[in-house]
Amino acid sequence: MVVDIVFLQTLVNGLLQGSIYGLVALGLTLIWGVMRVINLAHGEFIILGAYTAFWMFTLYSLQPLISLLIGIPLGFLIGIVIYVGLVKRVVNGPELSSLLVFFGLSMILQNLMLTYWTADVRGLPILYASINIGSITIVGDRLIASVIAIILSTFLLILLKYTYFGRSIRAVVQDTDAAMLMGVNVNYIYAMSMSIGIILTFLGGILIALTTPFTPYQGGIYTLYSFLIVVLGGLGNPLGSLFGGLLIGIIESYTATYWSSGISPAVAFLLLLLVLIIKPEGIFSRRR
Amino acid sequence: MNKAISRLTAISVIIIVILAIIAAYFAFYGGAPTTTTVTTLTTTSAVPTTTTVTTPTTTSIVYAGTIKVGFTTSVTGSLSVEGTRQLHGIQLWQEWVNTHGGIKIGNKIYNVSLVYYDDQSSKDNVVALYERLITTDKVDFLISPYSSGLTFTAAAIAEKYHKVMVATGAASDSIFQQGYKYTVQLYTPGSLYLKSTIDLLLAKDPNAKNIAIIYEDEIFAASVADGAKKYAESKGLNVVYYDKYPSKPTDLSSLLTVIKSKNPDAIIGGGHFADGVLLIKQAKQLNVNAKLFSIVVAAPEDKFRDALGADANYIMGPSQWEPDVKYTVNYGPSVSEFINMYVKRFNETPTYHSAGGFAAALVLQAAIEKAQSLDSDKVREAFNSLDLKTFFGAFKIDPTTGLQIAHQMVIIQWQDGKKYTVWPPEAASREPIYPKPSW
Amino acid sequence: MINLKDLTTLSIIGFLVISLLILFIGSQSLIAFFLTLLELLILAYSINIITGLTGYVDFGHAVFYGIGAYTTAFLIVNINTTSVTPYLFSLIGGLVAAFFALLIGAPVLRLKGAYFAIATLSVSEAVKVIISNISALGGSYGIPLARYVSYDVVSAYLAMWLTLLFTIVLAIWISNSKFGYGLRAIREDEIAANVMGINTSLYKLMAYVLSALVAGVVGGISGILYVYVSTEYFKVDISVKMLVSMMLGGQGTILGPLIGAILYYVIQYTLVTSYPFLHLLIFGTILIIIVLFIPEGLVGIIKRRFKQLKLR
Questions:
Q1: pLDDT value at position C4?
Q2: What is the value of ipTM here, to two decimals?
Q3: pLDDT at B45 over 80
């Protein structure tokens, strides 16, 4: 009986953690998918979002879910600024350029956060009680983050698939020149993709503040996992990102329970390698 | 696309390169050390890389010379919080010594100066910086870097030049199994971090049976966990769960799920700040109960309570030193004297990192005074016969390895949102609360 | 009148001579300073072989550095070394790293662009985690070496210098060979290169393996110098350091890694000693500026402006 509970609880843990992974990777799948730039500062944007939620809560007693609303204009603004200032120049260049530019950006952001907000660990208190179903516990704040993850992925999916804007994005991804010929303002599309991507990343960060304690050094891990998940799910594929996250979450969870927590990242990375070698477009995308 | 570059751009670039090389030359050979007194360090101001003596104003002492103590610390990098605090402790010591009669050898009086650099918690510059400290800055004595990993190398360099090095911060036992003859340890070694926790558990609950030990994948945390496991088993406890988790984890729920199923009496271990907080938070969310929680590194931090609120209550943690300890002192300032000095100087309550910094330099001072010499071998010899009780606790080393054998960890527990030293009984300011009530 | 036409050869020989002289007439701390510079130099050359020449961005190159270090440390601990210099083991470290590159190179090099970069990063991170779970390799503790080798800057310096010499000769040889031209063709247009009859898979693999060999040897020497090996050797910061140095100088060139590594090291050292709290910020800004405005690196700029100088 004990084994069953552990097995089921592990599943729940994995799904919850997995949807958080998927959530924080959403912004990246859009940015990387559309503009093909390697945003190594992704984790730092997440932490920025987390700090936003933290300060809103600590200084103004603003609930994180409300902070989500703040995250939208803030993320948009930052996205536009980063696009115009940086991304525009590297968007059509070699990978090494975008890689290093974003790496430089991540150093800058990390240093800024360290200087102004120190390396002390920050966290929000437990704001949502856990739900108990029999002996299985579903952690409250992670459940909320999962729900939001689903909502946001669906939103992104609808945006990409059913709106004119979304179609323009897909056109640009497929063939930039042809899209231009069709009258699509590529610059505008890139700028908007960047902004929406940063908004999503920010929102992910706000939810991270809700669920997990963080420091300015935490960004790197999220960057690494987000890249993993985006590749797994397929670039530019929102549902793929969500499912990729769930897959990684579950695999890590079961590895931690039945083998060792210490080795779970290796299992995740090896899975990624396998996918890259067998089907680089991602598990969940259709071969073009 | 090849755009033409103006001659101006090209020449500017070349000039910049040359300037950079010249700048590095000067940075490398450092100019004269800055002579201003050390200002209160805020996070945004640049830290002077060398500090010199602050000569006391009223004295007519004629100093026979200056004793230079050199070290690197993590001003930036992943250990910057701890490293900076430790730096403050050492700086406070320097000011204290120089305003309290210096160090007396025979009838000569010496004052003290510090030379230090930022090692960024990274191995890259350790060789260059310690070589520089010893051969260019010509320091007389060394203090170790904060990180255990870096200390393996720093101790080897100290060994080569026969320089005594006091290891503070770097607590891993294996450093002292390498045969380094010139390095002595201040801190309680990692393997003993959780010894007092287990003693407390058995004192409060002789029937306690099962214990779960977890640790971050990192040398210090591993030595803590390994030592804890051995000690627990030697005391007849059952280690029902023993596992490590990756660095900077974002989710410990599966680990906690398995622990819950084993129903241990105590859950101990940890790694750094963020994962310690995560552990307790998720333990509550998943309703993982135990009669005792002891979390290393994270629990003794004030930020622990800030991040967890009331959930921090009843959580214990081992600490090298706490402001409310009750120690009797036979050398150096008393506990309250140290705290008052520190608060006055740095505007915040000291943590064990700062206390450790001060104490490391203090025991060095004691050894120099005992040896009545600045000769490294004589000072190292003197360490062997030191049996001190400072504000930091007991100090006595194993003569062969330099390992610390007298210093005890104290255990803190959060009660009513405040941190109290609860163990050992002779140093405690309050009784420990056991068992911890359910979440 | 100085013949500036072959500035490259001049600079390289000049640097090699100067760095050797430092060993004999320099102060201890100058030698130590140069030693760390040499390490970075060799690593920059190492990654130049794969990323610089073929354009495949290896974001996990530190894995070879780490494998070389661990192999060397493992051998030192387990084999009695009184009769032979431990630096011999670093050669074996290089070979093991090269072998590892051979194993994973074939599948991984089929990937393009960012996928390749992410794959190499995954390999590096995976190996890091796996090694810290193997107790025979020190687990979370790493492998301390103080009981087996003594800390010695002079011998480490010689070993590094010789490795640098070998690496530069290798780089020059590759550059002038059909192999090198093939690699550059791959960077320009891999499909066309294939069509022209170049065995791109083989060439890429060879470049990868050679770059791993060099990095592995450096890792081994480093392990001996620092008297300690840990999973820190796999940190992504090391991979990035190599990439930035190479790029600063000009990727794919012979002089590039030399200039780039010197520049990187000098800037980084100056910043760390002068701006302990803000050096990351400043460095990040400099990096961005360089990438945006001087993407071909210093060598590229000089080449374009001073066409009469023969720079390779």
A1: 43
A2: 0.89
A3: no
Angle at B225 between CA A10 and CA C145, to 5 degrees: 120
Q: Which of C145, A64, A206, A261 is nearest to B241 (CA)?
A: A261
Helices A42-60 and A95-117, packing angle to 10 deg: 20
Residue environment code for C198-209, b if the CB has 16+ CB neighbours within 10 A, otherwise e:
bebeebbbbbbb
User: Structure tokens of C307?
Assistant: 């066409």
Residues linked to residue B268 through DSSP beta bridges, in sequence order: B213, B294
Q: Any idea which of B205-209, B381-385, C120-124, C247-251 has the lowest mean pLDDT?
A: C247-251
Residue B33 pLDDT: 34
- Please give the pLDDT value at position C278: 77
The predicted pLDDT at position B349 comes to 92
Cis peptide before B249 (omega within 30 of 0): no
Tell me what the pLDDT averaged over chain B comes to: 86
Range in B6-20, B82-96, B113-127, B248-262 the model is least confident about: B6-20
The CB density around residue B430, as the number of other CB atoms within 10 Å, is 15
| Rounded Cα distance, B252 and C172, in Å | 51
Alpha helices in B45-108 (DSSP H): 80-98
How many residue contacts between B and C have a Cβ separation below 8 Å?
151
Q: Which residues touch B248 (CB under 8 Å, ≥6 apart)? A: A217, A218, A220, A221, B274, B275
The β-bridge partners of C143 are C229
Contact between B224 and B191 (Cβ < 8 Å): yes
How far from chain centre, in Å, is Cα A121?
21
Residue B42 pLDDT greater than 60, yes or no: no
User: Do residues C205 and C102 make contact, with C-beta atoms less than 8 angstroms apart?
Assistant: yes
The minimum CA-CA distance between B429 and chain C, rounded to whole Å, is: 36
How far apart are alpha carbons C274 and B197 in whole angstroms?
43
Say which of C29, C36, C304 has its CB closest to residue B124. Answer: C36
| Beta strands B418-423; B410-415: pairing state | antiparallel
Which residues, other chains included, contact A229 with Cβ-Cβ below 8 Å and sequence gap of 6+? A21, A22, A25, A241, A244, A245, A248
Q: Which helix (H) or strand (E) holds B123?
A: none
Res. B37 pLDDT band, cuts 50 70 90: very low
Measure the CA–CA gap between C113 and C55, rounded to whole angstroms.
8
Which tokens belong to B259?
Answer: 């622990």
Total structural domains in chain A? Answer: 1
User: The domain containing residue A30 runs over which residues?
Assistant: 2-278
* Mean pLDDT score, B177-195: 93
C141 inside 8 A of chain B by CB: yes
- Give residues with Cβ within 8 angstroms of B257, minimum separation 6: A6, A9, A10, A13, A257, B286, B288
DSSP code of residue B414: E
Cβ <8 Å between C277 and B47: yes
Nearest-CA distance from B54 to chain A in Å? Answer: 28
Neighbours of chain B (3+ CB pairs under 8 A): A, C
Q: What are phi and psi for residue B425, nearest 5 degrees?
A: -55, -35
> Which CATH number do you get for residue A264?
1.10.3470
Which residue numbers in chain A have pLDDT < 50?
Answer: 288
The answer to whether B378 touches B371, Cβ cutoff 8 Å, is yes
CA angle A214, A219, A224 (to 5 degrees): 130
Residue of C28, C139, C280 lying closest to B135 (CB–CB): C28
The residue-averaged pLDDT of B172-188 equals 93
Note the pLDDT tens digit of each residue in C178-228.
Answer: 999 999 899 888 888 889 888 889 999 999 999 999 999 999 999 999 999
pTM for the whole structure: 0.88
Q: Are B252 and B278 in contact (CB under 8 A)?
A: yes
What is the rounded distance in angstroms from the CA atom of residue C91 to the CA atom of residue C73?
12
Domain ranges of chain C: 4-235
Whether the ω angle into residue B399 lies within 30 degrees of 0, i.e. cis, is no
Identify the residue whose tokens are 């009184």.
Answer: C82
